[in-house]
Write a structure and sequence with these properties.
The complex is a heterodimer of chains A (131) and B (212). Chain A has 131 residues and is α+β, with helices and mostly antiparallel strands. Chain A is 37% helix and 24% strand. In chain A, the strands form 2 sheets. In chain A, strands 1-2-4-3 form a 4-stranded mixed sheet. The two termini of chain A are 15 Å apart. In chain B, 41% of the residues lie in helices and 20% in strands. In chain B, strand 2 and strand 3 form a beta hairpin. Chain B is elongated and about 75 Å long. Chain B starts with a helix and ends with a helix. Chain B is built from 7 helices and 6 strands; from the N terminus they run αβαββααβαβαβα. Chain B has one domain: Rossmann fold (3-Layer(aba) Sandwich), CATH 3.40.50. The chains are: A alpha+beta (131), B alpha/beta (212). At the A-B interface, helix 3, strand 3 and strand 5 of A face helix 4 and helix 5 of B.
Chain lengths: 131, 212
């Protein structure tokens, strides 16, 4: 990615349904996401990665920062419904759905740090700032 | 007779609860939150020596740093810690950011390269911790994904957590915001640099050690 390429003339968003990565190993999943990010796309993952997958994503990102010229890393944010105020039945329903089909109520945004300057996350909203 | 019994039970129970514990305590958090400042404060308080260098430039700590056998004696209780101060975890590293702090291009690039490796090392060390103090800057937005990822990984590994909202001496600091972001955890507001509220921190540290 050259500096010229990072100028925004339009945004490329790639929606990734959770079903597309559901059966992948951690390595495959992280590789798929990073390949999209390296092609300057902002990935919208329907669902969220597990905590250890997020850590792996950061590790692999850092390894790439070291090896790919002008790659500065990623911006990452997850937004999901706040279940703390919901009643026990809603929580249970959400928990069962999460086990069966993944955390489909969540959205994960992952983009190249050279395109997204910052993602401000509030419990209920995401704000993306571009370079 | 009553006095003898009382002394006996105090001695036995006292020995039980004053039992020294050797805990590997990690300091995790985003860059520039004050992990090394807090680790230094503890090490200085109990060993007289510091663990590492602090700086206003992010990613000053780029290697995992240790201090073995830090004996803490506080209000009749004692604890032996191995303190593990880790490099700040981030999702991006831009050497150009370091240029703003007056570093030369070569120095900045070297720092960036070391910082990326430091982040990888921090994550690898997660598995080795008995308990972790997550140090956050109370003047920054606590809802950053890095904070959530660190805490999520500790929870997944069943590692007990204490959250420290550092830099409460700053005007912008909002400890309530940190508490609201992580209501399931103990949050202690301190200033590691100024040594503010360290008593409450040590109380919380002993509480944390009981969860190990």
């Amino acid at each position: 990615m050259s500096k010229k390429d990072t100028k925004i003339h339009g945004l490329s968003l790639q929606v990734l349904p959770f079903s597309e990565v559901k059966d992948m190993t951690i390595s495959e999943r992280v590789k798929k996401i990073l390949n999209l990010v390296l092609s300057n796309k902002i990935v919208i993952l329907h669902g969220r990665l597990r905590a250890e997958e997020e850590a792996r994503l950061i590790e692999d990102t850092m390894a790439l920062v070291d090896h790919i010229k002008n790659f500065k890393g990623i911006e990452l944010a997850v937004i999901e419904p706040d279940m703390r105020r919901e009643n026990i039945f809603v929580k249970m329903r959400h928990g069962i759905a999460k086990r069966l089909i993944g955390d489909s109520a969540a959205l994960t945004v992952i983009g190249p740090a050279s395109v997204i300057k910052e993602i401000k996350r509030d419990p209920r909203k995401l704000e993306l700032f571009f370079d | 007779m009553l006095k003898i019994l009382r002394n006996f039970s105090r001695r036995i129970l006292g020995n039980l609860f004053r039992r020294k514990q050797n805990i590997k305590l990690g300091f995790y958090g985003p860059p520039n939150a004050g992990k090394t400042s807090l680790a230094n404060r503890i090490c200085k308080d109990w060993t007289g020596e510091e663990i590492g260098v602090v700086s206003a430039i992010p990613h000053e700590t780029r290697n995992v740093q240790f201090k073995e056998k830090v004996d803490i004696e506080y209000k009749g209780k004692s604890l032996t810690l191995k303190i593990v101060d880790t490099p700040g975890i981030a999702t991006k590293i831009d050497y150009e950011e370091f240029l703003k702090f007056g570093l030369k291009k070569n120095e900045a690039k070297k720092r960036a390269k070391e910082a990326t490796q430091g982040i990888i090392d921090s994550i690898k060390w997660l598995d080795d911790m008995d308990a972790v103090v997550v140090v956050l800057d109370a003047s920054e937005n606590p809802y950053s994904q890095v904070n959530i990822t660190i805490i999520g990984n500790l929870v997944a590994r069943k590692i007990p957590i204490l959250i420290v909202a550092n830099k409460i001496d700053l005007k912008k600091a909002e400890i309530k915001k940190v508490e609201a972001a992580f209501p399931e955890y103990d949050v202690v507001g301190i200033s590691a640099k100024e040594g503010v509220n360290m008593e409450e921190f040590y109380e919380s540290l002993f509480k944390l050690s009981k969860k190990v």
